[in-house]
Prior knowledge:
Layout: H1 3-7, E1 23-24, E2 28-29, E3 37-43, E4 59-65, E5 71-79, E6 84-91, E7 94-101, E8 110-117, E9 132-134, E10 141-143, E11 149-151, H2 152-169, E12 173-177, H3 182-195, H4 199-202, H5 206-221, H6 226-242, E13 255-259, H7 266-276, E14 282-286, E15 293-297
Parallel strand pairs: 10-12
Antiparallel strand pairs: 1-3, 2-3, 3-4, 4-7, 5-6, 5-8, 9-11, 12-13, 13-15, 14-15
Helix pairs in contact: 2-7, 3-6, 5-6
Amino acid sequence: xxxxxxxxxxxxxxxxxxxxxxxxxxxxxxxxxxxxxxxxxxxxxxxxxxxxxxxxxxxxxxxxxxxxxxxxxxxxxxxxxxxxxxxxxxxxxxxxxxxxxxxxxxxxxxxxxxxxxxxxxxxxxxxxxxxxxxxxxxxxxxxxxxxxxxxxxxxxxxxxxxxxxxxxxxxxxxxxxxxxxxxxxxxxxxxxxxxxxxxxxxxxxxxxxxxxxxxxxxxxxxxxxxxxxxxxxxxxxxxxxxxxxxxxxxxxxxxxxxxxxxxxxxxxxxxxxxxxxxxxxxxxxxxxxxxxxxxxxxx
Length: 299
């Protein structure tokens, strides 16, 4: 058989030939922060025997990583029927076998999936958190934040971002904000609400932001002044922290603010590209407020 004829027989994703090849869905890109990860599910090779039972068929999960370093991630899969499946996997550059989706009914049953960092740190009430360390400036990064404490893992992430930015621009990355107290968080959210900002849209944790916003509205309805309103908001934030909920990652040393003065055009593009290269880190543009900056959420 000629080479030209063989090329014409290439099978498209989702198709099978002669019962000897798996059927796979198309590759789908992960969400923000993990743009270089792609996922697909594949059914096992077609079984034409009478003993085949489609009800027991599970789908293999494959993940393709465009990141050079190995990653430990948690993948939460949602099927079209609403069932969920969670996989903890370690990924290397290239294609990875990531386990099976027992909840999937067929090789193309994934409605959506979400990727979060695993980092080997336990979760839940009894988990032991990774210790924090004070982060100082480097040749690539200037630290102006009053309190910048990060886990060793996140400190390394930030250092790599600063290094990439400096390599592309010959400028140091300037970090202006780090760890926040509940009081400081309440003050900042008060100022945003006073200006008419939609804090529920701004913050990733919508439920927590709604609680703080409602505390602001309730206090305003009682005729409270700034000090009393901020106190009421702070109490809500403290209660949230007590149950393990954070309206902002700044409260648990999981976010930094970067100076945005004159950072447009090539400089902004360099920062965005430096962040994009770091899996799990997302950038939010907060240049519209009284203290313009770029906000980096760390895993």
